Every structure is written in structure tokens, then in C-alpha cells.
Amino acid sequence: MTERRTILVTGGAGFIGSHLVERLLERGDAVTVVDDLSTGREANLSRARDMAQDRLQVVRAKVSEAEASLQGTRFHEIFHLAAAVGVRRVLEEPVESLETNLLETAAAIRLAERSDAAFLLASSSEVYGKAPRVPFREDDDMVFGPTSVTRWSYGCSKAIDEHMVLARASRGGLRAVVARIFNTVGPRQIGHWGMVLPRFIDAALEGRPLQVHGDGLQSRCFVDVRDMARGLEQLLGCPQAHGRVFNIGSDVPLSIRSLAEQVLSITGSRGGLVLVPYESVYPIGFEDLRARQPDLARIRGTIGFEATVPMVRTIEDLVTSARATRAEGRAA
Q1: Which residues are catalytic?
Q2: Cα distance between residue 45 and residue 57, in whole Å
Q3: What pTM was estimated for this model as a whole?
Q4: Mapping DSSP to helix (H, G, I), strand (E, B) and coil, where does residue 292 land?
Q5: How far apart, in whole angstroms, are the C-alpha atoms of residue 218 and residue 136?
């Protein structure tokens, strides 16, 4: 009889983490989620609980707080997604964000080494900083602004996370993959910490103007969370990926203004959009990138990853879930 695999997902009650948990349960694994619910939500795990029977354990804590109690568990894989989320959160809570990214990653690595577990670090496109060359390639230099500008602290901390993981892997003690996640959207994402698509949808459904920062011509490459969860699962399961860094996402650029216009069209909102200067939203000196686009040649060549969910479907699904949530609130 084949041994049931046990998987740890830190940040598993989060937006991306909860979709990944469902994929792991679907393949028959037992899953332990560690999440302090600082940005994750219990409701995100509702479907996973229905699927799990006795295969889901949820620990409400930081990784470092749960570390001692988990040392006796043999994990086959660890997906480390616990991290500070959203530019606004980083700006408002810089110390907490840095501690989360650095200390909790160190704790997750220790758990992986004790279990001899394959380990995936969910890193970020923010590690490229304001690198001038687009698309971003995994071996490009990182270019950050001064340490006096809080905006760059997140990218710096995720870069240090990567250094920790790769250093452990180079010693031969850790089978690890670094996944640099680009802009991910889809069901369960909320706009509280500044996430652009759910923020647009909330405004559209309420008939308010969609606030587009700057001139709206800055572009991003959006990937659906269901594609992202699949890609993360496949990356860690591929031995050829171990010890390497991968961009993961979509490489099809879309301007923020065009995104807003799609939301207006799909929702039928007449609220329109309004351009808002950055200085009225963020601290003076905040820098945004004109373009953030990954080079995906490495991940395509290694696991054949391609984004498959069209943006229209992602928006439609988010609109449907947002309307359902509003209807439930009115019924209550």
C-alpha cells in the first residue's frame, strides 16, 4: 500500500495558499496548514474542509510559533507561502513585514531540513526592484532604491529569503525551488491591502469610480490563481527544478487602465474611472514600475508551464463571487 504523503503549506489560508491546498487534497495528500490569519481567512479553507475528511489539519500560528509542535511530523513537501502581502501592508507595517518574511522563512527551512522535505519558497517579482531590462530574467541584477524608502524593503527581504534557501540547497541539505510569483488574481483575492483587481470590482459593483493610479498606462502580466497553484505544485514535484529559481506567471502585458475598462464592461458599471496621482495614495517618493513582465523561458523549458485561464474568465468569476458575498450579507 502506498504511503499517504504529508504536506505542509504555510500561509495555506491565504489567497494562493488555499487554492494550492485544494489541489494537494485532490491528489490524495494529507495537508497541514500553518497560518496566523493576519491576511489569510478561515473562509478560504471552506471547500478544503469539505474535501478533506480527516486529511486537513489547520494550525493558527506563525511558522516559528508552530515549529516545536511540528518537529515530530514527517513532511514530504513544504510549500512556504507565508509572507507579508500587499504594498499597502508593507508601507503601513514595515517592521512586521520584514520579520514575517525573514524569521518565518528561516523556521520553515529548519522544518524542511529536519523532515528531508522538498521545499518551495514563494518569492516575488519584487526582488527585481526597478531593474531596467524587461522582461525580467532570473539571472538579471536586482536594482533597489535607497533604504530610506520603505517601498523597497519587501523586495530586499524576499531576496534574502532566496539567498537563505539557495545557500542551504548548495550545501546539499535541502531540495529546494524558488518561485518568483508575478501578479496573481482570481477568486478569494480581496482588495484590503491594495490588490488592484478586487479593488476595481468592489468599486464597480458599488457604482463608484474605479481609481486608477498615475496615468494608468503602467502594465502588468496577470495570471489566474488556479494556474498559479498548478504551477507551484508541478515545480516542486520536478527534480530538475530543484536548486533553481523560476519566474512563474503570465507574460502577456495589460495596462491598468485597460484592466479597469474590462471590469467596467463585464460588470456593466456606469461609475467610470478616475486617474489618481500616486502622491495622494502613497508616501511622497513612492516609485511604481512602468512595466513588470517575466521571461518565462526557464519554466516553460522545465515543466512546460503555460497560463490557461483567460483574463475575462478570471474577472467574471471574481464578479460572480463578489455578488454572491453581497447577496449573503443582505440576506443576513
Answers
A1: 154
A2: 11
A3: 0.94
A4: strand
A5: 16
